[in-house]
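[09:14] KT: can someone run the structure on this one? pasting the chain below
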Amino acid sequence: MSNNAAIVEISQAASQFTSSIVLQADNKYIDVKSILGLFTTLVGGHSYELHVHGPDAEEAKAKMSEVFAKHNLDIKIVSE
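[09:31] RB: done, C-alpha cells below
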C-alpha cells in the first residue's frame, strides 16, 4: 500500500502528541513522526504493533488507532 495520504496523515496525527509513538513491523522499529521511516515501512499485508509511551499516551493511542483504521491498516496497540 504505499499510500502517501495515509503516511502524511499518520505522521501529522502522531506529531500532535509529546508521547513517543513507535511502529514495530517485523523487527524494525520506526518513529511514526518520521515520514521517511513510514514510507519504507508501511507496505500492505503486514500487521503492525504500536508502542506509545508518554504523558498523553491514552489520547495518542485513541487517535492513532482511529487514523490507522481509517486507512485499513492492521494495527495492534501494545500496552506495556
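[09:33] KT: thanks! The first helix runs from residue 4 to 15.
[09:34] RB: yep, looked fine to me
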